[in-house]
């Protein structure tokens, strides 16, 4: 065979050396040539290069010119064979496998499902995956960059040289893939991309990276998320048997960076959080922990709400396995874990998704729909099938690989409206002039239907602050399909009311009654979230009027009102013991506050409220149904008194809730009741153990058949000042 017939063209050698070849797999690796096989490799920085064949024979590879391209011809071989490359560097031999020796891992179905937008578990194919392929251990890298001219995976393993591991493009989908033998978990990497115009892009982290470096470093890290040995079988078997809207749900919202810090100011690890936070939440009686976003994010001050690594638990607290142990530990003691999820927008840091392949790939190309003016972030192109599929896959990923019990979806209102936070002329309306983002609506419906279909028993929760109809209605009925919606109106009304001096509350009585006009239009969660105790808003305690005694009494009375009101409960960390200072994301909570009896009293109250919420069906079973609520005293503005009944359905004892939001005790206050007989006082926020004055009803009242408030029976009750009391009928 002549030399020219097996040697590659000089043009191809030049393009391989400059990493501009459109199909490096057509040149590098093992290729049939006449009556034998040609071996070609590009390996910079070596003195000599050879190929060790399966037979043990070493074939020297010839250097082309003075470059780093090597080739050799093995005659008389008709079938493909395995080989290893042996490089001599500074007199030392190094054996390794050639990535261009291996065939593709992905198949046509992966291309089809990605483009169609129906691949619900893209994380099983894209990203970095330690696998065994064609007889070798290594990592499959796969990334979607359809407009790129060239994509290479770079890292310490190839000296960050984009010429070494140039990837194979799957033209039907725009996925680039490469099996890199000889590397594994812990490998640090990024993608080097030549854009559509031939411009070298900033090095990009992996959109599907399962782990990342600790900020300020920004590379992705190869990690497995499919090998954890779970011990939460009982929890996972129980979860789909419970209808969330009819069960107790009391959520402690937690910012993991600032719940507690180490003595030197460092972060607790996932394991340390498991050891400390989980027992605390269980002791306090919360049913769930809701974690503010733990997806990888570059800026601490964003609190996680500007994530770049949607598939990576932040390295601030450890590796993915550590987060899996955290969730597993919570489940083993019956505590659910909800994760804040941010599919609305992403930061424009150059190593992230923005202009990923040199084009507006993940973001909408029109800045009137693709850029968020409030947060200087990019908005996902929800109408692009591949982007929507990635986001839905991410939701499923957290439920699959981490057994998460629910997703609280951030900033839903910003997704639903094309003119959200935009002035006239700054937004692009629909052809009919309307402002609904139909693409985002379809995405949210698909995401909710997908996660509920795959994981019955989980809960999705919308942070949605407008009157958009049907947020928590099924998609089959035209709703968005969420399980719950945050009741932002209730939050704003009640906090503004309780912040008033009691003398003025009678003029704003409607702020506590208005919410019942729409309380059952959605499945609501009552949120006192992080947003209400930061940026100068003060803590819950700090919002209260009066002297210190009145402040604490107001907090206790307000929490009693909240836990007695229909709807699931959410309370931001630190507010359960009435932290005096507003939240500081850069430090731990003021745990020293618990040295003081007044703070311990509020903590004890919240613990007891959670216990009653779990134990009394009347306080949770019909949170989302009008049959579970009945006003008794709704119009006593002059005395700022409210009273209502909660019902839990057949066989459940009704609970009376009554609040007095003035500093004057109300003695012999007659309240109508559905039944005569003994009503036990099961909670009094003015009790001494909570820091109150101890004004109450000596544990019970007796109702007689004297009609009042349209009910057949009634009782005279003592209503303590700035307090809420609960009574349960004895015999029902």
Automatic annotation (TrEMBL):
Reaction equation(s) it catalyzes: Transfers a segment of a (1->4)-alpha-D-glucan chain to a primary hydroxy group in a similar glucan chain
Entry-linked Pfam families: Alpha-amylase_C (PF02806), CBM_48 (PF02922), GlgB_N (PF22019)
Catalytic machinery residues: 410 (nucleophile), 463 (proton donor)
Annotated gene: glgB
Domain (Glycosyl hydrolase family 13 catalytic): residue spans on this chain: 253-611
Similarity-based family: Belongs to the glycosyl hydrolase 13 family. GlgB subfamily.
Biological source species: Rhodomicrobium udaipurense
GO biological process: glycogen biosynthetic process
Entry GO MF terms: 1,4-alpha-glucan branching enzyme activity; cation binding; hydrolase activity, hydrolyzing O-glycosyl compounds
Record key words, sorted: Carbohydrate metabolism, Glycogen biosynthesis, Glycogen metabolism, Glycosyltransferase, Transferase
One annotated Gene Ontology cellular component of this protein: cytosol
Pathway per the UniProt entry: Glycan biosynthesis; glycogen biosynthesis
Function description: Catalyzes the formation of the alpha-1,6-glucosidic linkages in glycogen by scission of a 1,4-alpha-linked oligosaccharide from growing alpha-1,4-glucan chains and the subsequent attachment of the oligosaccharide to the alpha-1,6 position.
Subunit structure of this chain's protein: Monomer.
Protein name per UniProt: 1,4-alpha-glucan branching enzyme GlgB
Record's keyword annotation contains Glycosyltransferase: yes
Record-listed E.C. numbers: 2.4.1.18
Cited CDD domains: AmyAc_Glg_BE, E_set_GBE_prok_N
């Amino acid at each position: 065979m002549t030399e020219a017939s097996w040697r590659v063209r000089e043009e191809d050698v030049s393009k391989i050396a400059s990493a501009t070849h459109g199909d490096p797999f057509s040149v590098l690796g093992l290729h049939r040539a006449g009556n034998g096989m040609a071996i070609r490799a590009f390996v910079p920085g070596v003195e000599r290069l050879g190929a060790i064949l399966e037979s043990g024979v070493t074939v020297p590879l010839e250097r082309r010119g003075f470059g780093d391209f090597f080739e050799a011809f093995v005659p008389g071989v008709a079938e493909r064979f395995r080989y290893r490359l042996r490089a001599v560097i500074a007199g030392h031999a190094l054996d390794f496998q050639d990535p261009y020796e291996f065939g593709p891992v992905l198949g046509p179905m992966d291309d089809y499902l990605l483009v169609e937008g129906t691949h619900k578990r893209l994380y099983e194919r894209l990203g970095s995956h330690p696998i065994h392929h064609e007889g070798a251990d290594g990592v499959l890298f796969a990334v979607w960059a359809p407009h790129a001219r060239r994509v290479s995976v770079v890292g310490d393993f190839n000296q960050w040289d984009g010429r070494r591991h140039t990837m194979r493009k799957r033209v039907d989908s725009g996925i680039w893939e490469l099996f890199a033998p000889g590397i594994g978990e812990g490998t640090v990497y990024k993608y080097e991309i030549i854009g559509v115009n031939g411009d070298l892009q900033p090095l990009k982290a992996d959109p599907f990276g399962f782990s990342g470096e600790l900020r300020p470093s920004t590379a992705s890290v190869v990690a497995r998320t499919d090998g954890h040995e779970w011990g939460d079988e009982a929890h996972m078997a129980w979860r789909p048997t419970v209808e969330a809207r009819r069960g107790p749900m009391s959520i402690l919202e937690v910012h993991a960076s600032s719940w507690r810090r180490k003595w030197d100011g460092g972060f607790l690890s996932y394991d340390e959080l498991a050891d400390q936070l989980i027992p605390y939440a269980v002791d306090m009686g919360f049913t769930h922990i809701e974690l503010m976003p733990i997806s990888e994010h570059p800026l601490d001050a964003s609190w996680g709400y500007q994530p770049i690594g949607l598939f990576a638990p932040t390295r601030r607290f450890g590796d993915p396995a550590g987060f899996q142990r955290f969730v597993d530990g919570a489940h083993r003691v019956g505590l659910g874990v909800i994760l804040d999820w941010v599919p609305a927008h992403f930061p424009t840091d150059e190593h992230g998704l923005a202009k990923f392949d040199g084009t507006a790939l993940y973001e909408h190309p029109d800045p009137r729909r693709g850029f968020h003016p409030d947060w200087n972030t990019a908005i996902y192109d929800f109408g692009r099938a591949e982007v929507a599929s990635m986001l839905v896959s991410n939701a499923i990923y957290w439920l699959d690989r981490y057994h998460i019990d629910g997703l609280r979806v951030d900033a839903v209102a910003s997704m639903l409206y094309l003119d959200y936070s935009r002035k006239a002329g700054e937004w692009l309306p629909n052809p009919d002039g309307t402002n609904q983002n139909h693409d985002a609506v379809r995405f949210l419906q698909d995401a909710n239907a997908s996660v509920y279909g795959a994981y019955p028993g989980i809960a999705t929760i919308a942070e949605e602050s407008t009157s958009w109809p049907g947020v928590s209605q099924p998609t089959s009925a035209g709703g968005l399909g969420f399980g719950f919606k945050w009741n932002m109106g209730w939050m704003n009304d009640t906090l503004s009311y309780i912040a008033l001096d009691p003398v003025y509350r009678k003029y704003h009585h409607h702020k506590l009654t208005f919410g019942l006009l729409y309380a059952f239009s959605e499945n609501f969660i009552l949120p006192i979230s992080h947003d209400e105790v930061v940026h100068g808003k003060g803590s819950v305690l700090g919002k209260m009027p009066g002297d210190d005694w009145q402040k604490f009494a107001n907090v206790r009375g307000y929490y009693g009102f909240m836990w007695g009101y229909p709807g699931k409960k959410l309370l931001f960390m630190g507010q359960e013991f009435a932290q005096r200072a507003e939240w500081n994301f850069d430090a731990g909570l003021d745990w020293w506050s618990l040295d003081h009896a007044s703070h311990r009293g509020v903590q004890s109250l919240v613990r007891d409220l959670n216990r009653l919420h779990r134990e009394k069906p009347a306080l949770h079973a019909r949170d989302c149904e009008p049959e579970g609520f009945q006003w008794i005293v709704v119009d006593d503005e002059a005395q700022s008194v409210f009273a209502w009944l909660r019902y839990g359905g057949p066989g459940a004892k009704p609970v009376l809730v009554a609040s007095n939001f003035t500093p004057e005790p109300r003695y012999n206050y007659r309240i109508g009741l559905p039944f005569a007989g003994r009503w036990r006082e099961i909670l009094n926020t003015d009790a001494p153990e909570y820091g109150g004055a101890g004004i109450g009803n000596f544990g019970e009242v007796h109702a007689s058949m004297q009609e009042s408030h349209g009910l057949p029976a009634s009782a005279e009750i003592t209503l303590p000042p700035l307090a809420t009391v609960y009574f349960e009928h004895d015999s029902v």
